[in-house]
Amino acid sequence: MADEYPMYALSEEHQAIREAVRAVCDAKVAPYATDVDENARYPQEAADALQAADFHAPHVPEEYGGAGADALATVIVIEEVARACVSSSLIPAVNKLGSLPVQISGSEELKKKYLSKLAAGEGGFSYCLSEPDAGSDAVSMKTKAVRDGDHWVLNGVKRWITNAGVSEFYTVMAVSDPEARSKGISAFVVEKSDEGVSFGAPEKKLGIKGSPTREVYLDNVRIPADRMIGPAGTGFETAMKTLDHTRVTIAAQAVGVAQGALDYALGYAQERQQFGKPIADFQGLQFLLADMGMKVEAARQMTYAAAGRSERGDKDLTFFGAAAKCFASDVAMEVTTNAVQVLGGYGYTRDYPVERMMRDAKITQIYEGTNQVQRIVMARQLLAGIQSRL
Length: 390
Ligand SMILES: Cc1cc2nc3c(=O)[nH]c(=O)nc-3n(C[C@H](O)[C@H](O)[C@H](O)COP(=O)(O)OP(=O)(O)OC[C@H]3O[C@@H](n4cnc5c(N)ncnc54)[C@H](O)[C@@H]3O)c2cc1C
Fold this sequence. Notes:
InterPro entries: Acyl-CoA_DH_CS, Acyl-CoA_Oxase/DH_mid-dom, Acyl-CoA_Oxase/DH_mid-dom_sf, AcylCo_DH-like_C, AcylCo_DH/oxidase_C, AcylCoA_DH/ox_N, AcylCoA_DH/ox_N_sf, AcylCoA_DH/oxidase_NM_dom_sf. By secondary structure, the chain is α+β, with helices and mostly antiparallel strands. It folds into three domains: 12-120, Acyl-CoA dehydrogenase/oxidase, N-terminal domain (Butyryl-Coa Dehydrogenase, subunit A, domain 1); 125-234, Beta Barrel (Butyryl-CoA Dehydrogenase, subunit A, domain 2); 236-384, Butyryl-CoA Dehydrogenase, subunit A, domain 3 (Up-down Bundle). It contains twelve helices and ten strands. The chain has helices at residues 12-28, 33-38, 44-52, 71-84, 86-105, 108-119, 235-271, 283-312, 317-342, 344-347, 354-362, 371-383, and strands spanning 125-128, 144-148, 151-162, 169-175, 185-191, 197-199, 213-224, 228-229, 273-274, 277-278. The strands form three sheets. A four-stranded mixed beta sheet has the order 1-4-5-8. A four-stranded antiparallel beta sheet has the order 2-3-7-6, with no helix packed on it. A hairpin with a 2-residue loop joins β2 (144-148) and β3 (151-162). α1 (12-28) runs parallel beside α4 (71-84) and α5 runs antiparallel to α6 (108-119). The site of flavin-adenine dinucleotide has 21 residues, from β1, β3 and α12.
């Protein structure tokens, strides 16, 4: 069905990546998506297939043994995986989120050590910013890092950590200078095997049930000082820079799940008969389908435009990353909800995939900053005159 859509002005390389990911997803991701959701289990088949095809962390540069995908290629990978199974798309997405702080601000030694392991499939990377009492207001975090000779000692609780327990590596933001607010936060690489690291029970969620979300407990975790990412006090800035880039990948998840729901609804509408003809023949439904297609396409174009800015590191990336994430996730919620409507009563049951897509789409409006927070970010950029001008 998606082949009936216009081809985007993608390079041959990007188009080839889309086709390659779609083939992997058709064979090894989509067939398990319902079971993964029903049983709230880790999508191991997808994890194995993505790793075998080098799509598990495509953004890692070639010099560290990675696939060296640019921001648009990474977006295409995540979009295509999300079209089949949003839970599985968290694998490449969170590997980028967790490791980008190292890539942006880490020492050459940290990059060599951890990006190489990630690329080689020796362990995934999670990102630990949020805490029980510090969500949108992340600067209010309480996790502490105290210097002790050649080491740092970390104590605290990180909440809502995607792939916690599965990942081997964790970028942890912690307060190293309580007086300095955001300038007193530092970033560290913590390993799952470090003494004092443990995990809470998996959260029971509305959607993305195959993506484990757990608390991470840091109990006197003593790590070598060279595991600090960048200089002391730069951790919050690194965390925010990271989100500028990775919000584009959340937009990609949103576009993917919306496309998956639209494709399913289009097929269903042409098969389901009422009043002696396919429901697709009714203009009332055609208008709904047309709006769905129009909005998915607008979200995709905005996401790809933001990916270009991410690749180039343009100064208006902060605006575009927030705008793409906010717009695409609102579209995903609307389009998946309308896909349920196209299927009528059948859409409301677990016998069809669109209700899962609707539940999964919801998270894209919440994580990596809620859409209220994205609007705050965008307004600040607009008022500062940073958004690009025509
Ligand atoms: C499944 C899942 C996976 C996640 N994965 C990760 C992860 O891997 N790593 C990580 O660090 N975090 C992760 N998060 C955390 C996520 O980023 C936070 O949930 C999110 O930032 C919101 O924080 P909160 O839940 O504390 O909500 P709150 O900050 O308490 O917000 C509650 C409501 O108030 C609104 N609000 C808050 N402040 C304002 C304001 N100034 N103006 C207007 N409205 C406002 C919010 O928009 C929201 O609607 C994950 C969350 C979930 C649910």
